[in-house]
Specification:
It is built from 14 helices and no strands. It is mostly helical and about 350 residues long. It has a single domain (about 1-155, about 195-340), classed as MetI-like (MetI-like fold), CATH 1.10.3720.10. Helix 7 packs across helix 9.
Length: about 350
């Protein structure tokens, strides 16, 4: 119940962000008056969106102000902001929030770096470029749950591919040890690691899986932006004797920024609420609920502890965090100022 409302909150968050970027309400109302027939045609879609988005959102707000739980499932009543007080006085909330922020930052950095880097490579004349583009888009095309379960198997202690690779590297490391031991007095080794049985290992495994899933989206956006840059700008820069880094800093970055900032904003929202990867790779936030992010923490609070009102309040808090971040991020970067 609350998870559905949470998904709705994220959808509304993205809608509000994008609408704040492109149009004000006054602009929308003026266009509606001038193009009434067009808006009559899309009125059924607005009604459906109101039923599947607005109603659950309002219901979730009401639920967050109640005392609904397993003991008060049918006789729940409004109790004010009591659930929000519980959220902000719960030490677990801040622990999970910190982990959620770390999860988002690490993933987004690798998504953008890998995505833009691969886009720069694919934007150049390259033999087999179409094949490489197809192969690199596959991680994003494959359903998330399949990829997440595949990576979970790859991090298995006994038969996972990651540990098998580590073991195969040991002969190489032994040769390195023959050289290092007389110099530094110790030897290195890569024994199989209990990835999914330790908090750090399980969280790292989830991050690796999500990086694999997320970089193709940034690559496609960056590649589209790169292909729209006039080549004459680079030719003029070559005549002026600009280096590759100077061309990247003064031409490439400013011209792909309007496309990348909204993509990064969406990437933050998607990554911040990426329930599938965390839940499937770590098997429900294991070990001992140490790898939860907020969205998986909400899910467990609903379906394990039956804290419906508390979970509704927490989902509203997540919505507000993303809404405030999205609007401020786009305004401060001013990447879409040309859209007004």
């Amino acid at each position: 119940m609350c998870c559905i409302c949470l998904i709705v909150n994220v959808s509304i968050c993205g809608t509000v962000i994008m609408s704040s970027v492109t149009y004000t309400f006054r602009d929308f109302w003026a266009q509606a008056k001038q193009n009434r027939l067009a808006y009559y045609y899309i009125l059924p879609a607005f009604l459906v969106m109101g039923l599947v988005v607005l109603y659950p959102f309002v219901y979730n707000l009401i639920l967050s102000l109640s005392n609904m739980n397993l003991s008060h499932f049918l006789d729940w009543e409004l109790v004010g902001i009591r659930q929000y007080v519980k959220v902000f006085t719960d030490p677990m909330f801040y622990s999970v929030l910190g982990k959620n922020i770390l999860w988002t930052i690490v993933n987004l950095v690798f998504h953008v770096v890998f995505g833009v880097g691969l886009a720069l490579i694919l934007n150049n004349p390259l033999k087999g470029r179409t094949l490489f583009r197809t192969l690199l888009i596959l991680p994003w095309a494959v359903p998330q749950y399949i990829t997440a379960l595949t990576w979970r198997g790859m991090f298995n202690y006994r038969y996972g591919a990651v540990n098998l690779w580590l073991v195969k590297l040991n002969p190489v490391i032994e040769k390195v040890n023959e050289f290092l031991d007389p110099l530094v007095g110790f030897q290195m080794g890569l024994p199989p690691y209990e990835w999914l049985s330790t908090p750090g290992g399980a969280f790292t495994a989830a991050i690796v899986a999500n990086i694999w899933l997320g970089f193709p989206f940034m690559m496609i956006v960056a590649l589209g932006a790169l292909q729209s840059i006039p080549q004459e700008l680079y030719e003029v820069a070559d005549i002026d004797g600009a280096s590759r880094f100077q061309k990247f800093r003064t031409i490439t970055v400013p011209l792909i920024k309007p496309a990348m900032i909204p993509a990064i904003t969406l990437g933050v929202i998607w990554t911040f609420n990426n329930f599938n990867v965390i839940w499937l790779v770590t098997n429900g936030g294991n070990p001992s609920d140490s790898t939860h992010i907020l969205v998986s923490y909400v899910y467990k609070a609903v379906f394990t502890h039956y804290r419906y009102a508390y979970s509704a309040a927490l989902s509203v808090v997540i919505f507000l965090i993303l809404l405030i971040f999205g609007i401020n991020f786009i305004r401060k970067t001013k990447a879409t100022k040309g859209a007004y």
